[in-house]
Each structure stands twice: as C-alpha cells, then as structure tokens.
Amino acid sequence: MVPLDGSKFSIRALNYAINLSKFTNSKIIGIFVVPSDDTPSPIDDLLNPLSSISTQGYKTKMTKYGQTILENAEKRCQQNKISFAKKTLFGNPENEIIKYAEDKKAGIELIIMGSHGHGHAEEILLGSVSYKVVHKSKKPVMIIK
C-alpha cells in the first residue's frame, strides 16, 4: 500500500513500490486520504489554492485532487505492467492509513510511504503522518526519502 498526497516524497515511494512489485509480482494499492475538517491544517495550506482554510467546497476539491493523483499513479503502474488499485478515504490521514492497512480484507502486507508529505514545515526529521504511522501501525512500514 502506498499513501499518496502528490508530494515528491509520495511519488518516490510509488516509484520504489513499482520497482519492488516487479520483483515480487505484487499488487500496489494507492490510497488518498481527504482530511477531515478537524485534521490540523499544514502551513503549506496557507499558500495552497485547495486550502482547508476556505472550507466552501473543500471536500469536493480535495476528492478531485486525490482522484487526479491516484489516476496518475495508476497510469505509471500500467506503463510498468503493475497491477494497481486505488482507494479514497476520508478522515484523519494517519488513522485512516493505519485502519485500512490493518483491515484483513485489504490484504496489505507492507506500507511504503514518503518521509514527508504536504505537512507541517517544522517537522524536519520525519513528517507527522509518517511518524505516527511508523509508531502506531502493526504492519511493516517502509519510509522513502
């Protein structure tokens, strides 16, 4: 499973997952989490036209943004002849990533994610979502820089 948010780190994680999948003949599940209104907004949002600060149409804009990211990831996987499934979730990103990964029906064996996303600028060593997933998930997590 690869959580995607459009950041360069999530794209690197997807690329790594594609390379790994070629050797293991595994399927990639790309997920995008539309943050809920109670999810703390990253500083980047202040400059982002999809900012959660402007809540009018936020869920619709973020869902479309996520669909674009997942479609681009799907195209990249198709070009590499890798099976890809996409999933959009709603809520707190780290909680939704963990909950989906641990759902037995999803069949997730590994979470591959970027070290940072579109998160808080002050988190220099590891992004907040990555940090929480690494520490709370019962599934193995691979962090890509």
UniProtKB/TrEMBL annotation:
Organism of origin: Candidatus Nitrosopumilus sediminis
Alphabetical list of Gene3D superfamilies matching this protein: HUPs (3.40.50.620)
Signal peptide boundaries: none
Entry's family note: Belongs to the universal stress protein A family.
InterPro entries: Rossmann-like_a/b/a_fold, Universal_stress_UspA, UspA
PANTHER family on file: STRESS RESPONSE PROTEIN NHAX (PTHR46268), USPA DOMAIN PROTEIN (PTHR46268:SF25)
Record protein name field: UspA domain-containing protein
Domain UspA: 1-145
